[in-house]
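WARN  no MSA supplied for this record, continuing single-sequence
INFO  ligand: tryptophan
INFO  echoing inputs
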Amino acid sequence: MKKTILTGDRPTGQLHIGHYCGALKNRVALQKDYDTYVMIADVQALTDNFNDPEKVSKNVYEVAMDNLAVGIDPNESTIFIQSLIPEIAELTVFYSNLVTIARLKRNPTVKEEIQQKKNLFKEDVTFGFLGYPVSQAADITAFKAHLVPVGSDQLPMIEQTREIVRRFNRIYGETLREPEAKVGEFPRVLGMDGRKMGKSLGNAITFTDTAEEIINKIKKAVTNEIGVKNLLGLFEQFSDDKGTIKQVNQQQEDGTLRYSEFKPMLAEAIIEKLKPIREKRLEFENNPDMVKEILFEGTKKARKIASTTLAEVKESMFLNYFK
Ligand code: TRP
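INFO  complex generated
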């Protein structure tokens, strides 16, 4: 029996090379060895985009195509849409009894995000946003996932999921599985402006960028200390030339690295790696019915699994009145 992976993306924009290094590479590499479920987390995306539902809806297909383009194989893995699995919402309600407000407020990622979203939330925060780690615990446990490949910003979510699982199992009896996180080799990719690379920050390199766009973005990249470290890290991720990787790192250490020469090399390495991804994505862009079919079948399969878990959860909670 294969072990299970559950992972997800919020459909708020196209995925980018930050996701690629942090999570997607792992996801693709592991799909042969694990039963893999890739969730498009539209319900979670709405927690901070409730006033722009069209954006979320539109990006469901974009994120699906990004996953397919980087190599998620629909014959191997299951891609599905969160809002079509109501069982996840039901689990969220049950789990919400097992988490305090104070604990949610202490979650470092949520804390940071609330700070960043002052425009949206003003001095307060919505119930839905504060509680999204609970809903993420439902995402993960609905599939009894063993492993969750994520970026490092997601570690607090997995920790909180584990706490919920332990609490649930202690109170209602052994029912849920405690998942482990798996972070990629280069989990904190920065954008070309030196801030975290983000879908909505306009500082990302996406899978649909042309060679020219990539060259220009890298050309503009900041070269302060953390900026250069980021570019060198990207080179290591995207170049297959071990000798040159070693050389540029050495030059940086010696203070002899010439950014005007290094930047085009980095751009070239990224362009090369993204080329087949971009081409594959184009095939899906030209065939939206195929993407629809993949999502439809994936969602159907995912829902079966989540229903089984929900039935077990209800059984453990004595919510089985007509049995
Ligand atoms: N919170 C994740 C992100 O922002 C997306 C996500 C939703 C997720 N549900 C998940 C990731 C379950 C892993 C497992 O990227």
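The mean pLDDT is 95.
INFO  checksum written, moving to next record
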